[in-house]
Amino acid sequence: MSPGVLDYAQFSRACREGDMSTVESIVTPQSRTPAFLHEGLFNALGSGNVDVARYLLDSGAPITKITPSWALAAPQGQQKPLFELFLQHGWSVNTPGFYGAVLLPSVIRAGNDALLDWFLENGADPNLGKQQDNRDRFGGPETNSCEALETAAEIGTVETVQKLLNAGAKIDNGAPLYHAAGACPPGSNPHAGLITSSKEFDGARISVMELLVKNGARVNDKLISRHMTAQYPIVNAVMVGAIERVKWLLSEGTDPDMKGQFGSARDYARKVSSDETKRVLQVL
To answer: Using the 8-state DSSP alphabet, how is residue 29 labeled?
Structure first.
């Protein structure tokens, strides 16, 4: 194995394991390329090695469009210190990756509440999001996006949704109620057949839905999308077997006969739903 290849293998391992003395011994004696340093940074970030990451950034490792996302693979307790390093080296919480994608939605998916708070405290804009049409790989984000709020509505807590609303997230940018109504149990696919949501999983979204309606979401709003979708919250809820959400939407005045691309809630229930859902929608 040539010395260069040996250096590279040792360097990657040292960055991954947090072996600072080995990292310094390889970086210090000679000028290393940005690509070489960046590979080490990738390994340090994924393992949560803050000191190694700081050293590499100080030594000239670049922050590319995808670099910050690797910090989300680190142990949760190390994620915030890693993002603080990025801030110190010219990155911002609203810096876009490819196709305008910002990190806030990914932070919400990661479920790290402390990191979400830190992002918002440092000015993360919940109305920024990836380009809907992928028009420009190196372009900026949509400025009227609902990606962050829709993500929180689907998988986050009511507290997370409230934090985004407090930070200025605009419900009218998208359809967060639709996404909350259609939240699926992990690993399930409504297009593959009948889904049975547990009462606990089903009902857990209702507090989020109540908050969204309180802040201006409307139960009969139609999702506008270039993709084929259920379009209405109640149809989405029927598709995922969310009986408690269906009941709640009906109690809030939703119309079960509104027809989207998959038909109305009653149409869909007749084809694919449990007997209980059929009874609730009066189609049994």
So the answer is: S
Quote the Cα angle for 191-189-173, to 5°.
85
Number of domains in the chain: 2
Give yes or no: residues 127 and 107 share one domain: yes
Q: Is residue 55 part of a domain?
A: no
**Distance between first and last Cα of the chain:** 72
Match 């990155």 to its residue by tokens.
91
Instruction: State the residue for tokens 């992002």.
Output: 119
* Displacement of CA 234 from its chain's centroid (Å): 23
* Pair 189, 124 in one domain: no
- The predicted model gives 92-121 an average pLDDT of 98
What is the pTM for the complete model shown? 0.93
CATH number at residue 262: 1.25.40.20
pLDDT above 60 for 3: no
Beta bridge partners of 263: 260
Give the per-residue pLDDT at 191: 86
